[in-house]
Amino acid sequence: MIANMGTQSADIKLISDEISRKGWTKVIYLFRPDLTHELNVEARLHEAAGRLSLASTGHNESKSLSLIRGDSTLWLDDIRCGDASKQFLQALDILRRDLSQSMMLGLETVEAHFAVYPAGSFYSRHKDCFRDDDARVLSLVCYLNEDWPENAGGALRLHLPDGSKDIAPMSGTTVIFLSNEIEHEVLPATKTRYSIAVWFRRHENQRY
Question: Closest Cα partner for 195 from 130, 133, 140?
Fold first, then answer.
């Protein structure tokens, strides 16, 4: 079990077993509701202050950005971000340690950024692990959208062996999946969509 300033109680073994068996898991209220609310407020403040930048496309620079993704991002760190982000990073580091021990993954670092998708924007189907870089092992998405309408769209679509799975971006929902196995996309929404994207990393070319 884990419990700290950022997370609620969670059974790491159940989470680890489900990821090992299916490649992904959805956890409701892994992070405290008051913290996700504060993160929502912080994301909106950064957005209003113009601190977010249009996201890059990693190793797909040859393609038009507008054909791949439409979000703006801000990396979470101790310099640019507020108290909520700092608490969230501390919670993520404890989660990294616990998942690494439970799944024997050798996870060493965490990277995370706010992701803000304006109405109508999307992120096309992709994986989070590049062909020449296997450092990202687990991806995590934490949703910050309070009172998200059912018909607003914006789902995370996971492309799984038995078909696609759509997950609504409701605050309190966290999704964790294998970075190098699960293809996924962000569907367009009718309103602005707020989330935090996270990657748990090991050293490149390190195998377990």
Answer: 140
- The overall average pLDDT reported for the chain is 89
> 182: helix, coil or strand?
coil
pLDDT at site 131: 65
Distance in angstroms (rounded) separating the CA atoms of residues 36 and 171: 7
- pLDDT tens, position by position, 147-184: 999 999 999 999 999 999 999 999 999 999 999 999 99
Do the bridges between strand 156-160 and strand 163-167 make them parallel or antiparallel, or are there none, so unpaired?
antiparallel
- Which CATH code fits 12-57+68-201? 2.60.120.620
Q: Are 104 and 56 in contact (CB under 8 A)?
A: no
H-run or E-run covering 137: strand 136-143
